[in-house]
Amino acid sequence: MHNDLVAALDIGGTKIAGALVDGDGKILVQARRPTPATEDGESVMRAVTEVLAEVGASPLWTRATALGIGSAGPVDAAAGTVSPVNVPGWRGFPLVERVRLATGGLPVTLVGDGVAMTAAEHWQGAARGYDNALCMVVSTGVGGGLVLGGKLHPGPSGNSGHIGHISVDLDGDLCPCGGRGCVERIASGPNIARRALEGGWRPGPDGDTSAAAVAAAARTGDAVAIASFERAAQALAAGIAATATLVEIGIAVVGGGVANAGDVLFLPLRRSLREYATLSFVRNLTVAPALTGTNAGLVGAAAAAALGRVPAAQIPADTAMSAPTAL
Ligand SMILES: [Zn+2]
């Protein structure tokens, strides 16, 4: 079993990546194409087929026993369909069936990208050794996933743990999802930048108005930039505290581009968490940055496809309980 490989697909609004992943989470073969996100559904599928053909050309392909897909959501794992918000040509697109056909009948597992990232962090990253964890991606959007009782918890449709769209501001701004005051509407990269600009922050000579530029300004002491990150941290903290109170998690892992802000995000996040996570069983929650980086989607999709053999059983007993350094 240890030598069996798992094929993985990571489907996002900007790129489609494919890989063969081994039992240690190492990527042996990789291919990628830009996502033709504004084109029709068949054109997007053609990019997927090209990625699969390139990975499938490897002599290692015959060792693949299953294929995992992590896709931008929403996904419907039960129906095998995807409807990524940023890929309008795919609405209820039967991706699982099409990939199965393209790969000659490999068993295919579909999860949302937040769930895939969670599988990667539990297997190889900061949530390793934790039986109960919330992992989240904070970038253009805010996604997430849950590990409960030692196992990935994708939920019936593969979207469980989608913390970006729980409301933390009852009368807050409308969210593109149709809700109001969602975590994503306050804490995503574009919203951090928007709030800073509205507050009077101005970019440098390079005109960069990304959240990364706001983070750089915050590091130099810009009060508006700092305040925008503090507000984002507050929303994340409220969402994390709610999750911890509901299902008792030991760690909240935060990844994605916005997490690269480092202390600019994590210091106010831990401070805010003390305000919202007050009960005895949530007070000692660890918050840690994600460790799996840019390949989290592929590694996580592979982990999700190999659910039966990925969990803590593979972790040597002496490292299983070593918690990541709390920053
Ligand atoms: Zn929303």
TrEMBL record:
<dbReference type="InterPro" id="IPR049874">
    <property type="entry name" value="ROK_cs"/>
</dbReference>
<comment type="similarity">
    <text>Belongs to the ROK (NagC/XylR) family.</text>
</comment>
<dbReference type="Pfam" id="PF00480">
    <property type="entry name" value="ROK"/>
</dbReference>
<dbReference type="InterPro" id="IPR000600">
    <property type="entry name" value="ROK"/>
</dbReference>
<dbReference type="InterPro" id="IPR043129">
    <property type="entry name" value="ATPase_NBD"/>
</dbReference>
<protein>
    <recommendedName>
        <fullName>Sugar kinase</fullName>
    </recommendedName>
</protein>
